[in-house]
Amino acid sequence: MDSDNNEKNGNNILIDILERQKKDLVVRFLKKHEEVEANKSFIDKIMSNLSDLIVVLSADLKIVQANKEFYKVLEVKEQETGLSLGDITGKESLQLLTGRLSAGEFQDMETTLISHSGKPVPVIIRGTTYVTESGRILHMLVASDRRDFYEVMGRMREVQDQLIHSGRLASLGEMAAGIGHELTQPLNTVLLLARNCIKAMENPLHNAAMIKENLITIIERVNHSSSIIRSLKGFASKVKEEVAPVRINVIIFDVLSFLDAQLLLSDIKVDLTLDENDNMVLGQEVRIEQVLLNLIQNAIQAMAETRDPILRISTFKHTGVDPESLQPKSYVGISVIDNGEGIEVDVLNKIFDPFFTTREVGSGMGLGLSIVERIVRGFGGHIKVTSTPHNATTFTVYLPEYVNNNYRE
Question: In this predicted structure, what is the pLDDT of residue 331?
Answer without folding.
Answer: 93
